[in-house]
Every structure is written in C-alpha cells, then in structure tokens.
Design brief:
Number of helices: 35
Shape: globular
Helix content: 25-40%
Largest sheet: 7 strands, mixed
Radius of gyration: 26 Å
Strand content: 5-15%
GO molecular function, one term: transferase activity
CATH superfamily of one domain: Crotonobetainyl-coa:carnitine coa-transferase, domain 1
Protein name: CoA-transferase
Distance between the termini: 49 Å
Structural class: alpha/beta
Keywords: Transferase
Organism: Frankia canadensis
Number of strands: 26
InterPro entries: CoA-transferase_III, CoA-Trfase_fam_III, CoA-Trfase_III_dom3_sf, CoA-Trfase_III_dom_1_sf
Length: 850
C-alpha cells in the first residue's frame, strides 16, 4: 500500500514559517517527498521552537540554499523545475524581488502548483504586517476579552492558531490544484493567508454582532455576551483543585451532569431551571452554575471521575498539559500517539497523522532532518550533485534558546514566517477539461452530523467547489437554534443543500441510500452506532457504492474506551492540552487549594477563560484529511474508510508541545497576567488607552526597534547585546519598552515600526468578530466579502479560505432545513406525485419555507 501523495515532490520555502512547516508535514506524512529549503544557519524554528521543528519537519529532506545569493536561487530554481508543488511562506514580494516568485518558477515548470502563504495577502493595507501568529491575532482582535477579561487590555495566548489554520487550508488548496492539473494539464498559483486560517475560530459571533448592528444596537465582540443567559460549558474545580471542563449543549446532557453532581433534585424542584442549559436571564444561569461549582468543590477528583464516566451523555475532560494529553486512554487507543526514533534525541513520542485511512495509511517514521540532510542530493539527472553539508542535530546545542530574540547567523534570515526576509502542465487535459471549474468540482459529499466541527470542514470544501448535501431530520441540526434561529448555521450551512428525511422510516432510508449511491463521500460526525442504527453504516453504504469514501469524524474515535461518549469543543481542546498551553500558571492545584468557591470565581476562573478552539481545530484537521481522501479517490476510483477525531485534531493543533523526548525544553507560556511570553513577545499599553503587540525575532529587527524608539543601540548595552543577556534582563527590557510605548498611540507606533520592518501592530480591542465584520480595509483587500443571507439580508463574512490563479473558489449562501428536498428528489428520479406521497407518508419532511 502506497501513500496518497506518493510520487509527488514538494519543495518548502520559508524559514520560521509554522504554517509552511505543518502543511509540508501533512503532505510528507501522506507519502510525498518533501524537500525543505533552509538558509545556511538553518530554519529559525530549530532554535526558536525546537520541539515544533522536530515534529513539524518529520519525514523531510533538508537542502541548504541562501536565497540572498545567486547560487542559492539557482538551487531553488532547479528544484522547482522538477517539482510538483512549491509551498512558499516568504514576505510578500520578497521571492519576486529575488526572481524566484510564483511566476518565475512556473515559467520553468508549467505543471507546478505554487502555494503562497502570507499574513494578509500579497497586496492591501495589511500586507506588510509580518506573518507572525501573535501579530495577526492582535490585529484581528483575538486578544480582546471584552467585559469578560480579568483586566483591561489585550490578553495574549501563545498558540499558533492562524498558522495552523492556514496550513490545513493550504493542504486542501494544493490538493485541489493538483486535481485541476489532472484534468487540465496545468498547475497554478494558490494563495492562503493567516487571516483565513484564524477565521474558523469565530463560530457565530460575527453574525450576532452584525444582526445587533442592524437593530441599531452597539454590538459586543465577546462570544459570551451573546449567550450570557446560557451555560453551554461550565468549568468546575474539585476539592483538590483539579479543574474539569464540562460541555452541556443539550438539555439531557445538562441533566446528566446535575445528576452526577448530586443536585438534580434541587434543580428539578425549581421551575426556573427547567430549560437548562438555556435560562430566562443571566442571573438564573449563574445560580445554576453556582450550584455545580459548590457541588464539585466539595469532593476530590478521585470521587468525581467514576461518577462522570458512568454517563456517556456527560461531555467533560480534566485540565491537562499537552504532554499529559499523550497518555489519554482514547488518544493511545486511536493510535494518535506515535514514537519516532531520532538519531540525536532518541525516542520521540509525538502526535500521529492527520487521519487514519484504511487503504492508504499514513505512517510517518523518519524524524526531522539535520541541516543539509541527506548529505548529497541532485535536483534532476542533469544537475551536478551539491556538496555534502555537515550533518548536525536539528536541535541547537543545549536544547532551548533563551527567551527573547533568536539571531539568524551566517546567511540566514529572520524568523517568524518571514523566511528570508500562476501557470502549469500535468497529464494531457481531456476534451471535457474545464479550467474554470473550482478545484473540487464534481465531488459530491453527503453530510450527516450536527454543530460545528464536521459541518464547517465541509463548508470550506464547498468553498473550493465540492457539492455538499446535508441530511437532516424534521427537527433539523440543533445548531440551527443554539444561539438564535439560524444564527450559528449562517456559517456551518453556507454553500450546502439540505435534504430533510425521516431515517427511522424505511422509505426515508431508501431516499438517503439513493442519494449516497451517487455520491463520492459520506461523512458523519455522530458517535459510533448512530449512523449504523439509521441504516447509514459503512457496510451498508459500501454495498451500494463501493467507491465511496466513508468518513467517521468522531469526537473521541470510532471505537475504544471513550468512543461512546459525547464531546464538544471545550472538552475536546482540553485533551490536546489547551489548559497547560493557554493559561498554564493558573491550573496548578497549589495556587487555589484553600480558596472558597467565591474566591475561585473572583480570582482563578476568570484567568482560565480560554479561546475556544476545540471545534475549529477539528474542522481544519478534517478539511485536510478529507482533501487527501478525495484526492486519492478522484485519481484512483477506489473508496476507503477515513477515521478522524476531535481529540486528535486538537493534539495536532498543539503538536509543538504534544510530544516528549529526553531533555525537552519547556514550551513558552504567558506570564500570570497574560501580557506575553517575554519582553520582545508581548503586548504593551500605549498612549490614549491603546495597546501594541510586539514580536521581534532577529538582531537587525531589534536594532530597528531600538532606533525607532529612540533608544541606544542594543549592542551598546551589555544587558541587551545578546539573546542570553536579554533573557537574564527580560524584566528590565520590558520596563524600558513599556516606558517608550506609553509615549505615543498604538496606531502611530504601528505605522512607524511596520515601515521599519519591525513586528509590531496595534492590538484591536473590538474583538475578532467585530473586526471581521466591520473593517473596511479587510474588504478592500478581498479578505472579507458581502453576501446575501436568505433570512438576514446582507452580511459580511470571510472570503473563501483559499484562492486560485486559474480556477475560481465558490461563495455559497446558507440553506434552511429541507430547502432542497424537491430539487434533490427530482434529481434522483422522483416525480412530483411521488414526492408528495413521500411527504404525506412522513418519509420526507417538508421545509418550513415550502
């Protein structure tokens, strides 16, 4: 059995780019030959994030090429001339200036698919913002916690959400462009952005704030203000100060949690709690939460675990670090932890592949390369082999590099996604080749699942041209009513068709079977057994359609100790280690052992408020896995089973710390007040109540920062002259920078420092959803767009996640339950009389708009 991407050669360019590294890893895991082009000093991730480099670059070859020099650029050109894909994450315009941009490389190789990853696109008002996750998140308002923050100002989290999202979207874009090449014979340019990579983190609030503005009210950018009278997730603490994240999306789940906590009698005796987890007022919701907090605080975790595990309807997880997540029983059972022997570090336990394929398994076995490994390489049969580079460990001497600036020595270039500071010919395109069809055009996906993680993955594929048909019963996806009628599903049903059938009736199942018999993909997000009980199990559907890609995108997994359990975003991310990574200091039990419930609520729990990424990480990972499965099926005609899980997806998102090996350096976490990780990577108050977000990662950049701030050159002060000295005097440097930043408004600092090549932006305090919805500069750059919602009128949303130079993406509108019943049934051969009979029999459930 060969890998899905076997036979493909991918060249990766972009020192310091997390997004390019992760995208390359996924393709390498799938069997592609991945050639990583590094500057002479090596990819700066080797020093800045050694664990991330180790995991994200497994299975790759390393080639040294200084793109500032002509020989290095020629080396890249020779590689690209025989490659299938180039993934490039350099600053906009840099590669073009060096003569190795997309147009230059595609002129050498008409088959080439060139994927460019930037922060905010190649043009526009934000194009010069450095491609660093913290800066993109600050610019887009993610650091704003609004009225629910524990202090004024932005609160930073050291997680690479924009890069992770852009990586998964890039994988889908590359595979889509390769499918286009199969039918047209030409490669093309693919563009992905960190902006689009972050967008999945806004589940529904952008719709809420726009509807609020339409009513003439002032919108809030904080998700919790939109659901303040609900408790879809409650964080509780045990007597021994272990934190448990629960999710209560549905009434029976809230009831099960109350029963386990021993408060069900109290709750059922009070009519105000009858609608839990949704209540009439925020005050009643808080009373319900207080009952849970008091109950769990009365006993140790050892008491609560068997009671929580006894009910599969209780969605919960205990707070943990990413390293602790490696030993979660279901993670281990699923095979989502693998061990790779590194020649320098020994055994490395790390996250497994993006998905589990039955016919084409992904089986990474080789660790990250040393600089210049393999020792000799030849771009093509006619090129002279390059001289061997000395093999060195992928890790810097002594493990971690001190906090602060990582210098790029030799001919290397600054880190932080800046790296070094379309047109193509595949097999002959047949007579039916249509270069104007979107990349995944011709692929039909039938979706059977609810809420966000799985449905949003298929939305992104619909943007890339797939036809997605959502099967719903008469009640519809409960997500349609979670945050107001059709508010949340403005995002999760975009570009889809809805077929509403009663799968509990024989005729309803026959309708679904006829539909799936003609489809390419069936994907379900329900727990194991649900699809099978309703006649949509793999065995039954494969008998109807042997070439079907059958996908189980589960919460925990298809089978195993937790597979029968309910799971939602906040608990799913806890398995990956979000508590340890986002708010590490405050989860230590010793910090809160003697606190009362009131003290916990006042001091600790506000500091444990996290960015909810459990669903978005799962959606993005599933997007990449689905794209791989579709790519294989479209090329071979062979079906197979694909299993993914929300917990594995979240482990993947935290994969730079979801690993263990000898002498592993600790991952950076923010200080106790969440300002940042170090003086050169944090937020600072500026004048007029504004704030900047600063991320500096090279010596030249540091000198430019000091010059713009009117400070003596760092080389002139022994405390700041080296990275080691800066780490020792980090508090002193932070105080000095804080004093200077306070002198001018953040907008002025951004203009001056961005122009000087320094990683600094104004931290937007409006919130992510408000920035996406109302920032006209994002629309001017084509990053957001206006669409006509069928119920709410004109709304703003992010543009399709990936764009292509020669084929379009697709912007679809949301669908109402059952909206496409008649059209789909007619397409399956039913007459109008037959459709009426099916409706009368209850096999097909008419839409509310019929």
């Amino acid at each position: 059995m060969s890998g899905i991407c076997a036979g493909l050669t991918v060249v990766e360019v972009g020192s310091g780019s997390v997004a390019a590294s992760i995208a390359g890893m996924v393709l390498a895991d799938a069997g592609a030959r991945l050639v990583k082009v590094e500057p002479p000093a090596g990819d700066t991730l080797r020093g800045r994030n050694p664990s991330g480099f180790l995991v994200w670059n497994r299975g790759k070859d390393s080639v040294v090429a200084d793109l500032r020099e002509r020989d290095g650029r020629e080396r890249l050109r020779r590689l690209a001339a025989s490659a299938d894909v180039v993934i490039e994450a350099l600053a906009p315009g840099r590669a073009d200036g060096w003569g190795v941009g997309a147009g230059d490389l595609r002129a050498l190789n008409a088959r080439l698919v060139h994927c460019s990853i930037t922060a905010f696109g190649r043009t526009g008002p934000y194009a010069r913002v450095k491609g660093r996750d913290e800066l993109v998140a600050a610019k887009l308002g993610l650091w704003s916690r609004g009225a629910f923050g524990f202090r004024d100002g932005p609160q930073m989290y050291p997680v690479a959400w924009p890069s992770f999202g852009a990586a998964m979207q890039s994988v889908a874009g590359v595979l889509g462009a390769l499918l286009v090449r199969e039918r047209t014979g030409r490669g093309q340019r693919v563009d992905a952005t960190l902006f689009a990579g972050l967008d999945p983190l806004d589940y529904f609030v952008a719709t809420v704030v726009q509807l609020t503005a339409k009513r003439g009210e002032k919108p809030s950018g904080d998700a919790r203000s939109a659901i303040s009278a609900s408790r879809y997730g409650v964080l509780v603490a045990t007597k021994d100060s272990r934190f448990i994240q629960t999710s209560t999306m549905l009434g029976h789940q809230a009831r099960a949690l109350c029963e386990a906590a021993g408060i069900l009698d109290i709750v059922e005796a009070d009519a105000r709690f009858a609608g839990m987890p949704t209540f009439a007022t925020a005050e009643i919701a808080q009373e319900w939460e207080d009952l849970l907090l008091a109950a769990f605080r009365s006993r140790d975790l050892e008491h609560w675990m068997p009671r929580l595990l006894a009910s599969p309807d209780i969605a919960f997880e205990v707070s943990r670090t990413p390293e602790q997540g490696l030993d979660h029983p279901q993670i281990v059972h699923n095979g989502d932890v693998i061990t790779i022997d590194d020649p320098w570090l020994g055994p490395v336990r790390e996250v497994g592949p993006i998905g589990h394929f039955s016919a084409t398994p992904m089986d990474p076995r080789r660790s990250a390369p040393a600089l210049g490994e393999p020792a000799a390489w030849a771009p093509d049969d006619n090129a002279e082999a390059e001289p061997a580079a000395p093999a060195t460990s992928p890790m810097p001497a002594g493990g971690a590099v001190p906090a602060g600036v990582t210098a790029a020595a030799g001919g290397g270039v600054a880190a932080g996604g800046d790296g070094y500071g379309g047109d193509g010919d595949g097999g002959a395109g047949g007579p039916d080749a249509n270069p104007q069809a979107p990349p995944f055009a011709g692929t039909t996906i039938v979706e059977f699942g609810y809420f966000y993680a799985m449905p949003y993955a298929t939305v992104m594929l619909a943007e890339l041209g797939a036809r997605v048909i959502k099967i719903e019963d008469g009640a519809g996806d409960p997500h349609r009513m979670s945050f107001g009628p059709e508010v949340a599903t403005a995002k999760t049903t975009a570009g889809k068709e809805s077929l509403s059938v009663n799968l509990r009736s024989e005729e309803g199942r026959r309708v679904a079977h006829r539909l799936i018999a003609t489809a390419d993909v069936f994907v379900t997000g329900f727990r194991s057994g649900v699809a099978e009980r309703l006649g949509l199990g793999e065995k039954e559907l494969r008998a109807l359609n042997p070439r079907l890609l059958y996908v189980h995108a589960a919460g925990y997994g298809t089978e195993g100790p937790y597979a029968h359990r309910a799971l939602y975003a906040q608990a799913a991310q806890a398995v990956g280690g979000s508590f340890g990574r986002q708010v590490g200091h405050w989860t230590e039990p010793s910090r809160s052992l003697d606190m009362s419930v009131i003290e916990l609520q006042a001091i600790v729990i506000p500091r444990l408020g996290q960015v909810v990424d459990g669903d978005s990480n799962a959606a993005l990972s599933l997007l990449a896995a689905l794209a791989l499965g579709i790519y294989h099926q479209r090329r071979t005609g062979i079906g197979q089973r694909l299993n993914t899980s929300m917990i594995a997806a979240n482990a993947f998102a935290y994969s730079d710390d979801f690993c263990t090996y000898a002498d592993k350096p600790p991952a950076p976490i923010v200080d106790e007040e969440a300002w940042g990780t170090c003086a050169l990577g944090r937020c600072y108050p500026a004048a007029a109540g504004s704030y900047v977000c600063l991320v500096v990662r090279s010596e030249p950049e540091l000198r430019a920062l000091f010059a713009e701030l009117g400070l003596p050159a760092p080389d002139d002060d022994a405390r700041f002259a080296t990275a080691t000295a800066r780490a020792e005097h980090d508090d002193v440097l932070a105080a000095l920078l804080a004093e200077r930043f306070a002198e001018r408004p953040a907008a002025e600092w951004e203009r001056a420092l961005v122009a000087a090549g320094v990683g600094c932006v104004e931290a937007d305090l409006r919130g992510h959803a408000i920035v996406t919805s109302f920032d006209a500069r994002l629309r001017d750059a084509g990053l957001t767009t206006v669409y006509a919602h069928p119920l709410f009128g004109d709304l703003v949303r992010a543009a399709p996640c990936v764009t292509f130079s020669e084929t379009p993406s697709r912007l679809g509108v949301p669908c109402v339950r059952g909206e496409n019943n008649h059209a789909l049934l007619a397409e399956l051969g039913h007459t109008a009389d037959e459709i009426a009979r099916l409706e009368h029999a209850g096999a097909v459930v008419p839409s509310t708009i019929d």
